[in-house]
Amino acid sequence: MKIKKIIMMAITTITLSICSLANAADHTIKAGARAFETPILYMGAGDKVAFTNMNSHNAVSVEGMIPDGAKPFAGAMGENISLTLDIPGIYSYVCQPHIGFGMVGVIVVGDISADDLAAYKQKAMDTLQGPYRRLLGKINKIKPTI
Ligand SMILES: [Cu+2]
């Protein structure tokens, strides 16, 4: 009886782990010459995103333009970073040497409502300075998902 219970619990645990692995998806953002390919990426909370082909580029999150409680990220020059983003919301990032060329992007994690999006746009308009304003073009193209 006791053994049967333990086996059932083990099977449940294994099944749950397999399901959560299957639900997390992998995404790629590839650096082109002066632009991120897939500059507006939508992904689920807990999904993974890998920046590839980052020779002579970096990916750095923009202060104040990631969700509350989310960890900022900053790849070194040439570093192909990989991130698992668990906290829903919008993450703005730039390639520092090419920001003036508009090499910037946004990642939308989880669902975003029209109200959340409007608040994010307003914050971007109010706080982004200089070349960081290149992000506005991408932010204005984000579509609400709920
Ligand atoms: Cu770059």
Keywords:
four-stranded mixed beta sheet; Immunoglobulin-like; alpha/beta; 28% helix; 146 residues; binds copper (II) ion
Write the layout of secondary structure elements.
Blueprint: H1 2-23, E1 26-31, E2 36-37, E3 40-43, E4 47-52, E5 60-61, E6 82-85, E7 89-94, E8 104-109, H2 114-127, H3 135-139
The protein binds copper (II) ion.
Copper (II) ion binds at residues 31, 57, 95, 97-98, 103.
In short:
The chain is an alpha/beta fold and 146 residues long. The protein has helices at 2-23, 114-127, 135-139; strands spanning 26-31, 36-37, 40-43, 47-52, 60-61, 82-85, 89-94, 104-109.
CATH architecture: Sandwich
Radius of gyration: 18 Å
Main sheet record: 4 strands, mixed
Helicity range: 25-40%
Instruction: Give me the CATH fold name.
Output: Immunoglobulin-like
Number of DSSP-assigned strands? 8
Name of the level-1 CATH class = Mainly Beta
Bound molecules: copper (II) ion
Overall description:
The structure is a single chain. It contains 3 helices and 8 strands; from the N terminus they run H-E-E-E-E-E-E-E-E-H-H. The model has no long low-confidence stretch (mean pLDDT about 90). The chain is α/β, with parallel strands linked by helices and about 150 residues long. The strands form 2 sheets. A 4-stranded mixed sheet has the order 2-1-4-6, with no helix packed on it. The protein has a 4-stranded mixed sheet with strand order 3-8-7-5. The relative contact order is 0.16. The structure holds copper (II) ion. Copper (II) ion binds near residues 31, 57, 97 and 98. Copper (II) ion binds near residues 31, 57, 95 and 97.
